[in-house]
Every structure is written in C-alpha cells, then in structure tokens.
Amino acid sequence: MFFQRFRRQGGLDDVQDAISAQRKAVELTQPSDINFGTRYTNLGAYLLARMQLTKSPNDIQDGISTLVHALSTIDTDDETDYYPLLHNLAASYMTSFEVSGDPEDLDACISNRQLCIQLTPPRHERLPFWMDVLGTALGRRFEITKSQSDIDEAIATFETALSITPLGHPFLPHLLYNLSMALVCRADYLGPTIPLSAADYDKAILHRHRAIRTARGRLDSEELANWIHSTALLLSRRFDRTNEETDIHAAIIGIQEAIDLLSSRSPPPPNLPIMYANLAASLYARYKSAGHITDLDDAIVTQKKSIELCSSPRDSQAVLGFLRLGLWFHERAEKFGEIRDFEEAIIHHKRVLAGTPPGHDDHAGNLSQLGNIFLTRFLRIGTRKDLEFAVAAHRGAVLAHASAPSSNEPISGLYSNLGNSLARRFEHSGAVANLDEAIEYQRKSTRVVSDALPILRATMFNNLGISLTMRFERTGAIGDVEEALEAHRMAAKLDSQEAGGRHETEVTKSRTHKLNNLCVTLLRRFERLGHMQDIEEAILIQREVVSLTHDDDPSLPTHLNNLARFLLAQYGRTNEIDNLGQAAVLQQSAVDLTPDDHRDLPAWLSNLGGTLLALSEAKSKNNHSASREEAERAIRILERASALFPESHPKLPSCLNNLSRAFHLRYQSTGDSVDLESGTEAIQRAISLSSSDDVQLPDLLLSLGCALESQAKVEGISASSHIDDAINAHRKAVSITPETHARLPVYLRALGASLEMKSSVIIDEVEHATLIEESLACFKRGALGYTGAPSARLTNAILWAVGSVIPVTAGLPLNFEKSLEAYETAIKLLPLAAGIDQTPERRHEVISPYSGLVSGAAAAAFACDRLDKALEWLEQGRCLVWNQLNGLRTPVDDLRTYDSDLADRVTMISTSLERLSSRSLSSVYDGRASTTAQDDAYQHVKLADEWTKIIDTVHAIPQFNDFLRPPSTSTLLQSLPQIGTVVVINIHGTRCDALALLPGASDLDDLLHIPLPEFTYTKSEQLVKRLKDDLFSSGVRERGLNSEPHILPSLDDERAARPRPGREPRKSDDVMREILAELWKFVVKPILDALAFSVCFTIQQNRTID
C-alpha cells in the first residue's frame, strides 16, 4: 500500500514506510518459507526506488548490502526471485555510479547484468529487457573508456536481444531505439573515413525508422515527437557527412512533424524551442547545400519562433538563437546587400552580447563577430564609422580574451579578425601604420593557431598573404612579397591536406580561392620585378584552378578572367600575339557562362572588348588583314557592355575609353569620319561620368585629346576648333596629375605634340613662336622629370632635341646649341629604355626606333664644336647597337659577375620604374580600388630615390664609374692604339662629319674634326640603293636573306654576299666603280687631306682587275 502510493505521488515518507514494513516482513519470514524470496525481491525493489529518489550514499550502500545479503540466501535456480534481485543489484550499482562516478560501480553493474543474462534461460520473457539494460551499461562505460570493445559488445548485446524479441512485443521499439544509439556512438568514434562508420549510421537510421513505426499508437505524442525529432537529427548528421540532399529533406520533414505533434499543447513542452531551433538549423543547412534563398528566409523565421518560446532572452537557447540570427542576417546581407539585413544582424548580435557580458566565456568571440558584421557593412556602404566600430570591436575582443583565460574563442581567430579590419582601414585611409599593425596581428594568428586546425590555419595564412601583398604594392619591399608568397603557398598546402568533413564542392572552392590569391601575388611580383617564371607559374596554377572548377560553378567566369589577365600580363613582356588570342577565348567563355542578368556580365564583356582591341592594335601594327575584324567585334562587345553597366559603375568610364579607341582603330581601316565622331562621343561620356579625383581621369583626358586631334586632321587643322579642345584636354590632364606621377611624361608629350600640331598652321610669328616654346617646355619637363618610365622620358627628350634644332622663325639657321642638353638627356636614357635585364634581341627591338638618335646628337655636338660629346655619344651608340646585334653582354652582366646582389637590385629597380608607368591603366583593368594617384606618386618617388642611390653606389666602384653612361673622352683616349689613326664618321640628315683620333692623343686638342660638307645623308641613301639594286640584278642576295625555302640554314651563317641559287651572276664593275669613286671623292679623300696623308697608287703589272 505504501509503495503503491509512492508510485502515484512520489513521496519519500511512503517509500520509507514501505521499506520499513517490508524489512520487518523479511525478518519475520523463515528462509524456508515459500514467500521468503518474494518478500526479499520486493524489499530490493523498494530500496532501489529510494536510492534513485534520494541519491543518498547511505541509502545506496544500504540497498546494495541488503541485496547482496538477499542473493546469498536465495538459490540461484530460483528464477522467480534470484534473477530480479540480481537485476536490482545491478541497477543499484548503476545508481551508485551515477552519484559517485566511481568506474568500479559501473563495472559491478555490468558484471552483475552479465551474470543475470548467463543464468537466465534463453526463452525467459525478461531476457530481452535485461540484455537491453546491459547494452546501455556497456554504452555508458564506452563513454568513459573509449574502448571499442565496450561499444562492440553493447551493439552485439542489443542485436541479440532484438533477435529474440518477437514482432509486436511492447519492448521492441525501445530496443530498436537503443540499438540505433549504440551504432551512432560507434560511428562517431570511428570517424567518417572508416567504412564501418558509414554502415553504422545507415543501420542506426533504419532501426530508428522501424522503432518509430512500431511505436506509433503506443507512445504518447510527446515521447513520439522526441523520437521523431532525434531521428531527424540523425538524418541531418548523416547529411553533414555525405551531403545527400534526400537526408536533409527528410530531416526537415521529421522535425516539422515532431513540432506539429507538440504545437497544440499548452503550455508548450520545454523542448519545443529546441525543436524549432533544430528545424531552423536544418533549413539553413539545405540553403548552404542547394542555394535556395527561401530556405534561408524560412530558417530566419523559424529561429525567431524558437526564441519567442524561450522563457527569457538571457536563456542560453535564446542567446544561441540571437547568435544564429545575427550570422544569418549577416550572410543574407553579404549576398544581396540589403541595408535592413545588416541592421537586423547588428541588433541580434547586440542581444547576444547582452546575454554574454564581459567575463563570459563567449564574450570575446561574440564581440569579434559583431566587428565582422560592421566591417561587412562598411564594405557595402562605405560609412567610416562602421569601419571604426569594426576595429574597436575586434580590438576589444582581443582585450576581453586576455581578461577571460577560459574563453571559448581561440585567440588566433581574434588576432586574425583584428588584422583583417586594420587592413581594410589601410585601404580606406592609406595609412601604412594600419597595415603594419594588421600584418603583426595576422602573423600572431598564424603562430598561435592550433596545428590540429589545418583549415583555419590555411585561412589565416591566406589573410596574411593578402595583407603582405598590399604592403608590397605600397612600399615595394621585396621581403613582403616573398613572405606573401610563402604564406599563400602554405595556405594552399594546408587546405589541400585536410577536407575537414567538408563536401567536395566546398573543398574545391576553398582550394581554388587560395590558389587564385597565390597567382595574384605572383602577378604583383612579376609586375614589379619582371621575372618571367612568376607569370609563367601564375598561368600554370590558374590553369589548374580553371580545370578544378566545375562548369556549373558560379566562380568559373572569374577564374577564366583571371587566367586571361595573367596571359595579358605575359603578353606585355613577350609581345606574343598568341597570348592575346588565348585571353580573348577565355574571356569569351566567361561571357558565355554568365547569365544575362548577372551583375558581373558588363565587366566580363568590357574585359573581352579591351582584349579584342589590343589584339586588333597588335595585328594592325603587323599589317594583319584580320585587325579590322577584331576592331568590329570589339566595338559590338564594348557597346553591349557600356549599355549594361549602371551609370555609377566605376568600370564604365574605362569601358567607354576602350570603345573610343576601337572606333578610332576602325576609322584607320575605313576612313569613315562617323567612327571618329562616335569615338569622341564615347570618351566625352566617359569623362562626364568620372569624378574630379578619379584616378582614371588623366588617361581619359589623354584619349579625348587624341580623338579630337584625329578629327582636327580630317577637318583640317586650321579650319577646326577641335585642336584647341584637344590642347585643353591635354592641359587638364597635366594640371591634375601630381608632379611625381609615373604617367606625367606621357601627358606632357601629348600636350607638346598638340601644341606643335597647332603651330604648324599658325601664320602669326609671335603666336607660332609661343606655341613652339610651350611645346618644347612640355617635352623638356617630360624628359627631365624625376619619375616616369625611361621609355616615356626618352621619347620626350628626342622630341625636345629635334624641336630645339629647328628655328622658331623660318629662314634662320638650325640652332644646335639649344639641343645639346636634350640630346645628352636622351643618350643617358637610351640604355635604361632598352632594358638592362632584357635579352639582346629584345633590347635591339626596343632601340631600333631610336637608330638616328646618336647620329643626331653627334651632329649637334659637331655643329657646336663639342668634339668630346660627339666622341662619347658615338661610342655609346656604337657599343649599345653592336652589343645587341652580336648578342654580347648586357650592361648589368659585368656588374653581376662582380656583385650579384647589387646587380639584382639594379635590375629590380630599373624594371620597376619602367613597369609602374602603366600601373594606373592596369589597375583600372583589374579593379584594384586601393590604387590612387597619390599611391603611384609615392611608389615612383621612392623608386627614383633608390635608383639614384644605387647608381651612385655602382659608380663608386672604380671599374664601373661609367656604368650606364657614355665613357668619358679621357677614358676613350686612353684606349687608343699606339699606331695608326682611328677615324669616326657620323652621317645625319643635318650634316656629315668625321672625327680623327690621332696616335698618342691625350686631350681634346688631339682630336681632329673633319667636316664633310659635300656628303649628305640623302647621298648615302642613294648609294646604298644603287648597290642593292645592282646586287639584286646580278643575282646576289644580301647576307641573312633566306628567301628561297630550299636554302640550307648554314648558308645564312656565311658573312658575305653570295649569288642566289638558280641565277647566273653578272659583272657590275661600272656601278661599283661609281660608288667607290663617290665615297673616295666626298668621304675618304677629304679625311686623308685633312690628315695630310699622301696617296701613292702602285699598279701590279701581273694583276688583272675583272
């Protein structure tokens, strides 16, 4: 009676009274009494009930000792009493274990249960139940020992119990449920890579489904809902392993059914908020897998419902819900850019912080996550205060972690987040101190992150590499780009080593992202140093990125465009037109893969149009017939791109600029003036869309000026107002460009040329002279500028020199004196423009257009009686050209033999000065928003300073005091032979001269200038033409000419003119005599006369001249 009331009401007094009464009954019963065992069994049950209620060690010990004594008095063959007592003793040890945690109690429980099963006949009705509780106890011990033998035995025990349990047995659902739990434990223990693990999960889910089917109608709705809910969680966990979408669909359906079973209850069951939270998590998982935004929306709504059911906003379940909402709103904001989503993310994350105040183990991590949200909103909106909030939150998180040693958030992640926000602040403000601090924190993150987290380590090395690359772009420190490459290589290596339970698609995306960043850094080093192996490696790796990316991956167009970008960079170095063709094919594929409504389509089209334009220009230079076809296609594509770009898009002006150039290129083929007008309209629109501080504006103005000049030429310069508009455009480009900007020499050259063009039609002498003087001032400024590409400065110097010679007023003699400074500047720039690290072939290709520079400079020096300069410049030109033609050493080769490190630094700085001149245009192409005119100026000033210092260092070495400059006259005179006179001849369009270096000459007085007034450049050309024509008519080919396909290559190596195969050579004595006579009369004899040499002709009698 007492125990029955206890079972109804749970009162301690009732169970105490029941034990006292039953204990008295046992004492009064003789062991031989038929009821003795039953009364002991009941006493054991009451004692077990009390110890489970009170958890009192005294009660537990009392119960165990009583049951042990009872078992000692009852025969083991007594099925009715001995087995239940043994079962209760095992249950008592389990209760003792739960209270004390003593493993020996658990061992005693298991051994007694095993004994109970061993003694129980196979068909005993209670055997399945006793096996079930044994399996449960073995599972508990496995949780402690992690010994696979325990969980294996537990599963075997459950399976045996299941095999002897008949269908329809009321205990069957529970047995199936417990077996599935044991299988899940073993699967989790083995890990996802072990085949047995996957099989255990599959079996567990099958048994769980069977348990639910058999339990329907037997369990109450709450317990059934719990079973369905837990089964859905198993499906969700299997989805995490396999990414099989049917599992996540079934999980969502199952949790929804569980919620439906409980939603009508009032008050709501306490586990209902958890069910809603798990449904939200499953919806989010399906969103991440399938990408359906409706799942993310439903996840947010469902999570809000979970929070509403929580008892308090500070409840742990509510705080977790706020955290999820903050993250999910943040993710939706990142995807769609909706401001309201950012606000919701911040609101919910602030609620998370309210539930995890300072000192809480999760405070630092939550504060850092809030910083991430502010940072993302800054990137979307650009509000400075969001960036400052982000930095403050991330800095606060680092400090909070220091004051909470038990923080759940790894310090490595906090360091990394702070570094990322500081790097963004650098991009916004340009203050290098922010980037320096960012890199220090990111370095710390890579040092302290656990080796057991390779994926996280990969992310941190990736972030460090990005920041180091940015600093390299700003400061040019080679150590930064080297460290950046090491970081990116480590990130790629770590990411490929560990899948981390991620789906194959996620692994591939992560790997390609990191490889792509590695390629970008290789590109940056190539742009600065010009090492071909860098761009070749970037292309090789990016090809792998493209091959790894599935055709349906939305990032494939980006990867294709990047590969094209690297090929274009390589083209800039090699001029291999095939690179342009490959790039165009890749960009066309990117366009074809991009939906018509995709936001990146205009950019992809613009890139393709720009490449086709470059391809057309390259073919046009080679008189290729297909150049017009590319121009037509470029126009169509660029017109489509410009129509798709929003008016406010930063790439639209660049697109319109290319469109303008494409129209101009087509005009060169068609002569249709409509193309010129269309080109001018396009570039005018580009300028109207650009702000006054836009980094592209000077180049857009340059294009406008050139377009207007072309229109002026068509209409007639004197009759057109376009030339004045062109001059104004060029003036503005110059005026808004910093003095130290690398492109300033280009803008100055264009302005000077337009002024010169206008002067050609001006009759008024004063206005004409003013325009010429301003034009020459532009060329001079462009040549003498502190920074800028040597090639651009050289072009200005040549224009300055040539323009200075021509008198401002018609009829006056040539003014060579004014040109000397310009020529000296040009001669100094020529070896730098040729590229001190280039191959001889490439250097010859570069200097070929300047073949008349040295002779013009020498002519000016002769005219001004500056024989020292004439000699130095002629020797400089002779050495430069001769070395190229004969494949001799470049200027830096000898220095490298002496000091390889110094030579490498000279090469690096020289190459950087040339390459950075085109940086502003390439920056527009690749979308680097951080590049500004001020950044370019900083870089070039720094490089120019380094160049000056390092050249001074080289010149301080005795054997290199003439490095990259003409050898001095004194040096040349010291090298003269002791016997014989050396004569240097210079032929130029303005005059011809000879310079005789007498034996033993030691100063300028020993140089003899011999003018050759009767010999002209025109006459020399005529003699050359006559010689070629005569040789051709005689069937003699020039050395190196291989016009017949069957001629052996070895013939080309012979250094004399030979008769062409198949032709009979004829004699041409008359022509040769005439040419030699001319040379004798106008060149040789005047020189010999000046040297006072007598000429004696001696004819050998036996010699016949044919």
From TrEMBL:
Looking up SUPFAM superfamilies in the UniProt record yields: TPR-like (SSF48452)
Disordered: where is this region? 1043-1068
Q: Where is the composition biased (Basic and acidic residues)?
A: 1052-1068
InterPro entries from the xrefs?
TPR-like_helical_dom_sf (IPR011990)
Its name, as the record gives it, is: CHAT domain-containing protein
This protein's species is Ephemerocybe angulata
